Amino acid sequence: MEIAFRIPADIQKKYEDLTARQWAGPDVIWKKTGDPLASSWIIVGRSTSGANHDDDPESESIFSTTDGMGYFDSPGPDVSKYIGQQISRLHVIQLFTGWIQGTPVSGGDPKRLCPVVSWYSRVSIGNYNWQDREAIADWDFFAPSGSGLGWLDLKNPPAV
Asked: Which of 19, 91, 93, 157 is the most exposed, having the fewest neighbouring CB atoms within 10 Å of its CB?
């Protein structure tokens, strides 16, 4: 996901140390251990109150222009957590908010300089070697995967 914010010239004159900020919100992880299309979803973990921590973009993911700033982020599941498990499918939804912050040139604490943007990452992947415990996992994307603006429902896994 790429998030970009326009920063008017008058704001750039009044603030310094402009920084892209991000907060990790609620998330959920479901798995399947049988047929990736027919078996039932099992909840692995859910954080409905939010991950409650700053998750600022990595410096190499931040970009600046003469009139704006933004960042790129590509979250998703850490599949190394599932090595040795017979998982056929993972479905992860992570919710985030992002904004630009700056410190007043005149002094004082940093301030949010724009509206907060809510966005989501939805990653659904299947392991094509799920039936063979000895095989190396062969993960590939399933639908629905993608990211967008807004937040998604965390209560219900995908139908398939």
From this structure: 19
